[in-house]
Design goal:
Elements (H helix, E strand, L loop, with lengths): L1 E4 H19 L5 H22 L1 E4 L15 H11 L7 H13 L3 H9 L6 H24 L10 H31 L3
Helix pairs in contact: 1-2, 3-4, 5-7, 6-7
Length: 188
């Protein structure tokens, strides 16, 4: 069995990019550069959390049906909790599922406002949905190729990731509004 650790490859690529960026553009603003490196590091961790380890399988290609029914996972959790033999705490599992799916995209929404200066909610929505959709399609392709046996395309993830990105953008806008209010107050 051969494993390819995505985070190692992406971290090396990030290090090479930073080296060449510092070498070729020495006059760039250090603050903007560090914020961008922070964003790239976040993207490396995000991709690693979705793709973990790619297993190179001798099994070959197989088609896996995508999960296209919204909130299918929540229905499974609820049915498990309603089982007389289950010890599943329904609230705990729903909170865990929603937070593990939505929270990784909160920084993306924040970065879209903070670093990329996107001020329109619709633009943020389109970018977050596009990013999530691309990740889900890539996961599904990798699953069908037999490289990651435990993942597949899920509409639940697209919905919850989008909510997470919008929450992050909302946090950015709220912080900006509070900062503006403090700036307008002046000294006490």
């Amino acid at each position: 069995m051969e494993y390819l650790h995505i985070i190692v490859v992406l971290t090396i690529a990030l290090g090479i990019y930073i080296f060449f960026d510092l070498l070729l553009h020495p006059k760039k603003s250090l603050k903007k550069r560090l914020i961008f490196y922070l964003f790239l590091s976040y993207m490396v961790l995000l991709l690693d959390s979705y793709f973990f380890v790619i297993y190179i399988s001798p099994a070959g290609v197989e088609w896996v049906d995508p999960q296209l029914k919204p909130f299918d996972h929540l229905e499974v959790i609820i049915s498990l909790a309603n089982s007389p033999y289950s010890g599943v705490n329904l609230t705990e599992w729903i909170v865990r599922f929603v937070s593990l799916t939505a929270l990784p995209f909160v920084p993306l929404g924040f970065f879209l406002g903070w670093y990329f200066k996107i001020m329109r909610v619709m633009k943020v929505l389109v970018l977050v949905v596009s990013t999530t959709f691309a990740i889900q399609c890539t996961q599904h392709l990798v699953r069908c190729l037999g490289l990651m046996p435990l993942v597949k395309f899920q509409v639940d993830s697209i919905i919850l990731n989008t909510i997470g990105g919008l929450v992050g953008y909302g946090v950015y806008r709220l912080g900006r509004k509070i900062r503006g209010a403090w700036a307008n107050e002046g000294p006490v």
